[in-house]
Design goal:
about 325 residues, 2 domains, Rossmann fold, alpha/beta, 60s Ribosomal Protein L30, Chain: A
Length: about 325
């Protein structure tokens, strides 16, 4: 039986002045909030598997219709106007954080919102917390298509005075129209810094898949950065790129398999280290046939870098391996 929606709340804020400087175009941030009762799970204690009840308990159209529609009605231009997005939930004290996760981390909740704002590519940033009525609700935002666009790292903050009750869950979608529009060096436009002046590009690979990259340009020798599992090329931020871009061409890759904008996962037969080494070979060829590069890899990216260096030593001038996986036990390997 679907959980009952007690009330909804629409929060809209327009920032006219930031840091003492007036923005030519105010930043608009929107939060669509629903307060729902949690009778299926509240007070039950630990439940081994919530999946059989999730679709039955989630109010029909909660994220896909109701909250998405509330956001778009005030965005001023529909889904195309939305630039940053995110989601959040707070479960009352008689529930567990996992009850909030069960509602907002489903395809029914998030995918409709992604499609409604133009087929977004970035994942929906989120927070899940547990607390009493009037607990802070924080919705982290990021650019819907570029997870590394720092101007859209924003947070919507609000609270609902009488929610969540002990047996309730507060669920929310967030959006921004625009990003941080105050510049560091004066003038107008999006606030930027040199270390994020990277070009986001999608390239075809020889096997028919695609590669998403961030390229800082420059005329120096190429340095290729490969992230770890669950991350994307935007993970390489701040001092690393700023320092390296002074003397090198810096290229950060999105691994395949839902990491950033690259193609879906490697096929079962190629989803092993040799398969990822072959993927990196195709990637470097697509980047203009880079004959020799320096590699820097983190976690799984370090294993790929090491595997490539061992297989193609003539194409690697040096490699930096950051926290590579080492002698992982059978229990640590996901099924």
């Amino acid at each position: 039986m679907p959980a009952e929606i007690r009330k909804t709340l629409l929060h809209v804020e327009d920032t006219l002045i930031e840091g003492g400087k007036r923005a030519e175009t105010p930043l608009k941030m929107i939060a669509a909030v629903a307060v729902i009762r949690n009778p299926p799970w509240a007070g039950r204690g630990f439940v081994e598997d919530l999946r059989p009840e999730i679709h039955d308990c989630a109010p029909p159209g909660l994220g896909g219709d109701l909250l998405t529609r509330m956001v778009l009605e005030v965005a001023g231009g529909g889904g195309d106007a939305v630039e940053g997005y995110g989601k959040s939930a707070i479960v009352g004290v008689n529930g567990e954080v996992e009850h909030a996760s069960a509602l907002i981390h489903t395809l029914r909740f998030g995918n409709h919102y992604r499609e409604a704002v133009g087929g977004a590519k970035s994942y929906l940033a989120f927070t899940n917390t547990r607390g009493p009525a009037n607990a802070p609700l924080q919705i982290p935002l990021m650019d819907k298509n570029d997870g590394g666009r720092r101007s859209h790292y924003l947070t919507i903050q609000l609270s609902v005075a009488d929610a969540p009750g002990p047996d309730e869950i507060v669920v929310a979608l967030g959006a921004s129209v625009g990003g941080d529009r105050i510049t560091v060096s004066g003038g107008t436009g999006i606030r930027t810094s040199r270390n994020w002046a990277m070009t986001l590009t999608t390239l075809p690979l020889s096997d028919g898949t695609t590669l998403s990259t961030r390229d800082a340009g420059g005329g120096g020798a190429p340095v290729v950065l490969i992230h770890g599992v669950g991350l994307q090329s935007a993970a390489w931020g701040g001092p690393q790129i700023e320092r390296l871009a002074q003397t090198h061409r810096v290229i950060a890759l999105d691994m395949p398999g839902g990491h950033g904008g690259s193609s879906p996962p490697l096929t079962a037969g190629g989803a092993d280290l040799p398969g990822f080494v072959a993927w990196l070979t195709r990637a470097l060829d697509a980047l203009g046939g880079l004959d020799q590069v320096s590699l820097a890899g983190h976690s799984m990216g370090a294993l790929i870098s090491l595997g490539f260096a061992a297989t193609h030593p003539e194409r690697v001038s040096r490699a930096a391996l950051l926290n590579p996986v080492f002698r992982r036990s059978a229990k640590a390997v996901p099924p």
